[in-house]
């Protein structure tokens, strides 16, 4: 039999030879790659070991530094020196620490200690150790990072590596104090003992370099030549993540190289044989049982990539058991992905609590209608609805009851839209308009509704009234009955806007206008935008006035009607605007309550009033001060701590401070008010109910409040001489308060007759223009000199 190169046998043998050659060459290449990979793996593992070792040692070092810092700050003399800013004493105490065990025994190699106040202003520093202030600037990146921390993070230790010429340094900042730091310690040390420990534990020569490429530390045997040595580099960053210290270590990989040489020879032999056998055996099966089915799967994936609707389509393939299993899993995955894409769309556009469309879907629908309006002039109406008093349910009954309430509200609103009389203006055949008319939940207790083809204000108002009727009847949740209301903002397109953002903004303004004025619903008007702009301007100016200390206080005395002497002073807030002049308090306080600035404003008043009270006490004028609180202040989580701090800082007894709240403010949420008033009373503060008689307080509830006095509203006092009913109200209020053990203050006393009548009615205190108008502190001091009402 002749051997012919063109024969199938020769071609097959040639193919086997070529494949075998490729296999052998591939095995060599792979082995070389594996060797390089092994070297890199060895490098990576060593780098991780170095990294973890240095992290552990740094943590140990930081713990020692923190213990060292805590030792310093636990010194009562040191804390007192920090509080009093005694630089010399702080320096002496810091210098003493250089002779303590940690330093003298070289457990810690402390270079310098700095002491800062709470704003990171340098107070003092140790005279012992290196002088880094002019050269190193105390690791400025670490100090800047510590300054930026907020809240609870300010009381945690923060550390960073840094370097200075040939020195590698570790710096930590330790807070002085507990919950509220009174200052900070910065301790700078040389971590040479870390490097020595790392060299001993890792068993490799070590060299430490600064970012200036200067040697900070080097092993004694660093210059010894190691066969097949591998250099391992690791960088220790500073607090900003920039390189601070470079670590270089040598590792011997001679054994790895020898092992590789032996393995490569064996692998080439084995691979040559396996290639020869496997190519013959598996070629046919590989082609038929694997390549072809996988190609079919690839084609199916390409179709799915081009068209997501192909997801869920069942694929049938012939092949090996693995291919059959893969095909089954592919079909299941395809089905699940089809379902997942459907659920994603539902999650993206559906509120999970109420199953109503969400805000994203609402915006899409409004976009659709605005486009429709711009195209053919089709109008529509948008409602934004805020549920009144819903927060009371959440806070008294819990969020679970609130969720149930939101679900029932959504059902009633959806029912309103399903009523046919609202759809008469829409063509029965216009399916697209019907599908895009819906109610949605925007979030929280706010809902929205879109009514296509509505362009008449009267019709929109009638819809708003229907919505109010639907929500007017009581809601029963867990056997409790709730009567809620709804405030509705109404806008029409295109009358009130032609784009989504403008319509949403104007509807929101109208809703808040309705809620603030208890109107039920409000059709948008241009003056609402102007009013909103004025509120924003006044809010900005008021924030600036608070920051620049441009506000002032006025003082009006309270007179004891038994001794005819001043016993207390009410503090009143005044604002003289640089352009508008005097702004009445009711205007800017209302804005502050609306914009959320009221807490900051009240904190300013508390600080200024109690500081003034301290000055009066120092001048031997010992009378109480009355400070007004807003209803919004009851929700201020910082109120108690602010009052407590101001009392302590000004050395004022809590019993000499009276907090006044209006009757309406207390009764807006009596259950929560009772909790807050009890907390204020527990501090020792006195409490007063202002404008008594103008609200709707329950006498039975009033008995539960820890108040000390009530103030009769000026409207009753000023008219009691001419109006018999007002006189009866005043007398009844005084009798009621005395029976409850409360004092009574009468406001608005402007005549001697009113004053004498109040004395006859056994009123305790009086306040009004007859005795004194609100005065500046300077005028008040003059009044104290000459007024017959002033204390002797």
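^ Assign residues to that structure.
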């Amino acid at each position: 039999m002749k051997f012919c190169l063109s024969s199938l046998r020769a071609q097959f043998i040639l193919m086997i030879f070529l494949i075998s050659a490729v296999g052998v060459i591939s095995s060599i290449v792979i082995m070389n790659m594996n060797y390089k990979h092994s070297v890199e793996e060895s490098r990576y593992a060593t780098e991780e070991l170095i990294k973890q070792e240095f992290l552990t040692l740094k943590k140990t070092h930081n713990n020692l530094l923190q213990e060292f810092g805590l030792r310093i700050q636990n010194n009562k003399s040191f804390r007192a020196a920090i509080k009093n800013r005694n630089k010399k004493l702080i320096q002496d105490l810091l210098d003493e620490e250089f002779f303590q065990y940690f330093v003298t025994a070289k457990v810690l190699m402390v270079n310098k200690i700095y002491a800062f106040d709470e704003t990171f202003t340098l107070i003092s520093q140790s005279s012992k150790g290196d002088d880094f202030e002019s050269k190193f600037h105390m690791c400025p990146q670490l100090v800047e990072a510590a300054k930026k921390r907020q809240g609870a993070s300010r009381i945690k230790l923060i550390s960073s590596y840094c370097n200075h010429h040939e020195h590698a340094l570790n710096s930590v900042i330790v807070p002085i104090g507990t919950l509220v730091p009174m200052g900070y310690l910065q301790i700078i040390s040389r971590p040479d003992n870390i490097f020595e420990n790392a060299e001993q534990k890792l068993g490799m020569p070590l060299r430490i370099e600064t970012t200036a490429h200067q040697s900070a530390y080097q092993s004694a045997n660093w210059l010894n030549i190691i066969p097949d040595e591998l250099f391992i580099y690791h960088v220790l960053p500073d607090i900003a993540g920039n390189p601070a210290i470079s670590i270089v270590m040598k590792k011997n990989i001679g054994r790895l190289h020898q092992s590789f040489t032996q393995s490569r020879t064996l692998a080439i032999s084995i691979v040559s044989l396996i290639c020869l056998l496997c190519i013959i055996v598996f070629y046919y099966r590989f082609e038929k049982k694997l390549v072809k089915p996988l190609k079919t799967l690839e084609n199916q994936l390409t179709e799915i990539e081009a068209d997501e609707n192909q997801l869920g389509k069942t694929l049938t393939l012939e092949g090996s058991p693995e291919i059959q299993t893969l095909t089954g899993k592919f079909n299941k995955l395809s089905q699940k992905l089809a379902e997942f894409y459907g659920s994603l769309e539902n999650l993206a556009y559906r509120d999970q609590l109420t199953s109503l469309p969400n805000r994203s879907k609402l915006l899409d629908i409004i976009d659709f209608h605005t486009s429709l309006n711009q195209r053919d002039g089709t109008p529509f109406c948008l409602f934004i609805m805020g549920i009144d008093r819903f927060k009371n349910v959440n806070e008294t009954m819990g969020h679970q009851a609130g969720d149930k309430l939101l679900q029932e509200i959504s059902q009633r609103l959806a029912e309103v839209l399903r009523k046919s009389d609202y759809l008469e203006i829409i063509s029965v055949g216009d399916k697209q308009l019907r599908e895009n008319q819906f109610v949605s939940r925007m979030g929280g207790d706010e809902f929205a509704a879109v009514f296509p083809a509505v362009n008449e204000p009267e019709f929109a108002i009638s819809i708003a009234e229907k919505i109010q009727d639907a929500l007017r009847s009581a809601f029963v949740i867990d056997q409790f009955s709730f009567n809620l209301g709804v405030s509705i903002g109404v806008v029409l397109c295109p009358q009130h806007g032609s784009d989504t953002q403008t319509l949403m903004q104007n509807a929101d303004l109208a809703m808040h206008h309705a809620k603030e004025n208890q109107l039920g619903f409000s059709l948008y008007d241009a003056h609402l935008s102007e009013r909103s702009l004025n509120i924003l301007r006044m809010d900005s100016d008021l924030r600036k006035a608070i920051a620049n200390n441009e506000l002032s206080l006025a003082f009006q005395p309270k007179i004891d009607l038994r001794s005819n002497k001043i016993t207390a002073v009410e503090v009143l807030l005044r604002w003289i605007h640089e352009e508008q002049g005097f702004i009445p308090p009711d205007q800017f306080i209302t804005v502050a309550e609306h914009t959320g600035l009221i807490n900051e404003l009240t904190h300013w008043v508390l600080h200024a009033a109690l500081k003034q009270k301290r000055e009066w006490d120092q001048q031997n004028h010992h009378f109480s001060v009355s400070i007004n609180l807003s209803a919004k202040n009851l929700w201020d989580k910082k109120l108690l701590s602010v009052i407590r701090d101001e009392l302590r800082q000004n050395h004022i007894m809590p019993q000499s401070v009276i907090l006044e709240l209006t009757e309406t403010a207390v009764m807006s949420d009596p259950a929560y008010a009772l909790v807050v008033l009890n907390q204020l009373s527990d501090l020792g503060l006195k409490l007063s109910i202002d404008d008594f008689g103008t609200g709707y307080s329950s006498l039975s509830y009033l008995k539960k409040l820890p108040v000390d006095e009530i103030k009769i509203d000026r409207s009753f006092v000023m008219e009691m001489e001419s109006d018999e009913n007002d006189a009866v109200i005043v007398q009844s209020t005084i009798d009621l308060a005395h029976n409850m053990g409360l004092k009574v203050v009468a406001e608005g006393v402007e005549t001697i007759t009113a004053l004498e009548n109040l004395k006859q009615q056994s009123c305790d205190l009086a306040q009004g223009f007859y005795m004194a108008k609100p005065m500046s502190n300077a005028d008040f001091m003059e009044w104290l000199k000459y007024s017959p009402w002033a204390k002797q």
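The CA atoms of residues 160 and 559 lie 62 Å apart.
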